[in-house]
Fold CpaD family pilus assembly protein.
Amino acid sequence: MFLDRSRLPARSTGRVVALAIVAGLLASCGTKDKLATGAIPDDYRTRHPIVIAEAERTIDIPVASGDTRLPQGTRDVIRGFAAEYRNASSGVIQIMLPRGSANSHAAQIVRKDIRRQLAAVGVPAKRVIETGYEAGATGDAAPIRLSYVAIAAQTAPCGEWPEDLTLNTLQNRNYYNFGCATQSNLAAQIAHPTDLIGPRQMSPIDAVQRGQVINSWRGTDTGDGGTTIIFN
């Protein structure tokens, strides 16, 4: 059935035109909303993937020019670093000593204490090597650097802005650096990077522990028809 506008009064014709315009606007708004929610073609997990690669772990040990031994706090830091090394690497630990600095002589004395701390955690002496670096005679106290190489989960460096941010916003697309910090933080929290490759082998079942758990869930009879659940 077709509507013959020639037979409608002028006021009715105006109303029909107004309704048609409103209907068109509403339809266009619905189309824009649909495009806006589904128009993000990129994924930050694809743009900033977490990969397993070789990474260098380092720590700087401050040494004053008059030091003859390490303070207790510094010893604890070295032991913690050595414990991480044992869990993550089977290579060598480098002790990089400064040369030409005001504290170079003190660094040569303190290095023996560093070796003792590494040995106390279980690092074999054959896996500890000493190298040097030019610190320059600037008068500043150059640190002793400990480093080792291990496999780690990581992402590419963040902070890149290769595209126009306003253009991506108008197109309702994620900007390039979006999600990079989240991916980097997640990678840093992964204790065992091999977990990203596949699950570990299951440990044998502990029959004694299993029996204790079952008994705890079964509970004990209270004598009045009820059951008391006991959790150890």
Notes: Residues 35 and 65 are 66 Å apart (CA to CA). The chain has a mean pLDDT of 80. Strands lie at 51-61, 93-99, 128-134, 144-154, 220-221, 227-228. The longest helix spans residues 10-37.
